[in-house]
Amino acid sequence: MSNRLAVFAVVVAALSFFTVQLSSTGAVLGSIAPLILGFFLGLIVAETPIASPIQELCGLTSRHPDKVGLDIIHAADTSTQEGKTAKSQLNQRVMYGLQHAFLNLEVTGWWFNMGLWDKSVSGMRFQDACKALVQKVTSQLDINSDSHVLDVGFGCGDQDVYMAQLHKPARITGITIEPIQHHAAQDLVKRTPTPGTDIHLYVADASKLPQFLDSTPDLFASGTPTADRLFSHVISIDSAYHYNTRAQFLKNAAQVLAPNTGRLALADMILAKPPPTSAVGRSIFKSVFGAMEVPYVNMKMMDEYRQDLVDAGFVDIEIECIEDRVFSGLATHIQNQTSRFGGMVGPGVKWTYLALAKGLWWLDRSKWLHFVVVKARNGPRSSS
């Protein structure tokens, strides 16, 4: 460590001397700014105990793969001699170490919903939990080879490919507001055969479904009458609580669904307890949901939520609360992943997910939110 400290000292001293020289010649540059700059540059160059976390925070370090591997294996065990030795080896370079970890990584999908976790299955895979949630939402909806499903908020496309494999509808149309996820989903669909099902994905706004329908004429077979340009199913999995607003989305969903037979299915979140009544409490609540990019107006109790569905024109409404199989399962998985792969991701990502895990544990214990599966049938078309 002494050579790194020496480099650090030289950089700071050189810039400090430069500052004094500038000051003595009457240069405009003040004496404080270069000193701060010198200190910062010193932190970049040196790998001192203080410097390392700052380097990682700023994204200015490139950790040797061996250090990453040793961190993963021994980060939680410094009580044994082996652990202490491994820690000391973090500052050494070896010929190969664990660089070959890259060759063993396998991407099996880009799934991203909260999942439906089976507590009887130890170490359940994230992808399996995500698939279980999709299956829960889409079961008993009479999706068949004549169906045209609109998937609102399709993530990276994994759920559309899975729905095609499960139910084999004639067509799945998906929309998302995120172009990068649309790009990833397009790539997945191109390289994944889905016999019998055509999948078409678009970037569009969930709050403007009728406009999307009108502006995209190739959604339906050519020659389809305007009155028949409707979907058999509208599905939104772990996404509707983000829509601005969800109540408007429900009304729009009813407009683009076939009357009387069209089916709606959601995985969604609502309040399980009344919101705080005090000004301070409501401000905190709004801030929390704002940080989650959830419009506060969407956070309604069960009766209000059901009324929104009724007002939109839906009938035969079923709402099932499943949060006991969602929040704690995902929290456990995040903690397990962080302990296994924490050294491979930047601090910002690691801390974000650790904070998410803590929040999910809190939700599980406090019972503030319901995670619900909603199924409903579209009513008759309004004459107004």
Automatic annotation (TrEMBL):
<dbReference type="Pfam" id="PF13649">
    <property type="entry name" value="Methyltransf_25"/>
</dbReference>
<feature type="domain" description="Methyltransferase">
    <location>
        <begin position="149"/>
        <end position="259"/>
    </location>
</feature>
<dbReference type="InterPro" id="IPR029063">
    <property type="entry name" value="SAM-dependent_MTases_sf"/>
</dbReference>
<keyword id="KW-0808">Transferase</keyword>
<dbReference type="GO" id="GO:0032259">
    <property type="term" value="P:methylation"/>
</dbReference>
<dbReference type="GO" id="GO:0000234">
    <property type="term" value="F:phosphoethanolamine N-methyltransferase activity"/>
</dbReference>
<comment type="pathway">
    <text>Phospholipid metabolism; phosphatidylcholine biosynthesis.</text>
</comment>
<keyword id="KW-0489">Methyltransferase</keyword>
<dbReference type="InterPro" id="IPR041698">
    <property type="entry name" value="Methyltransf_25"/>
</dbReference>
<comment type="pathway">
    <text>Lipid metabolism.</text>
</comment>
<protein>
    <recommendedName>
        <fullName>phosphoethanolamine N-methyltransferase</fullName>
        <ecNumber>2.1.1.103</ecNumber>
    </recommendedName>
</protein>
